[in-house]
Amino acid sequence: MILRRPDAARALLVLAHGAGAGMRHPFLEDLAGALAAHGISTLRWEFPYMAAGKARPDAPAVAEAAVRAAWAEAARTAPDLPRFAGGKSFGGRMTSRAHAAEPLPDCRGLVFFGFPLHPPDKPGTERAEHLAQAPGPLLFLQGTRDELAPLPRLTPVVKQLGARATLHVVEGADHGFDVLVRSGRSRGEVIEELAATAAAWMVSSARCGRATRRGTRRS
Q1: Which CATH number do you get for residue 95?
Q2: Which residues pair with 166 in a beta bridge?
Q3: Least enclosed by CB within 10 Å: which of 3, 70, 141, 142?
């Protein structure tokens, strides 16, 4: 696991990797750095198959158990910070599956960096069905060129989840958040957009959660 905690951290994101790259992938390293600049700590970790050097992702039951182990470690590592969970593609989906099956204790919300709505060339929405059972706020950060979650298919899914779900569209980005040269945007600018958006959402969600619990105690 890799913990990155900036001074005056405001929240912690337990960040899982995608199916084809581990926690040291440049995208996650750069994202963690950008989040730190916005006061968000990150705990990056790896699924068992990636740690073992295997190419085939773990079965859902194994992956979900790994999500819970990482979450428990986060609670020990940063018990003072509001904690969020999520990840890139496969990592975010396995995190939400685990949270839907049995809520992660004290989880303030889930952050998806490219939710994989369906496998390549197999359009559908079945992978999102569990999200209705995943409690709490949900943030989807999706590119307009994401072939695994085309916006015409993803937008209705997010809408059905109600006010607790937020969709942020990254113009010109694909599933890996790469943009075409002709877009006029750099990779660094896209990473900064992701980090700034996620950080602001987490800070706002943490404040709302705190206010809700205080209100519950007074009633």
Answers
A1: 3.40.50.1820
A2: 139
A3: 3
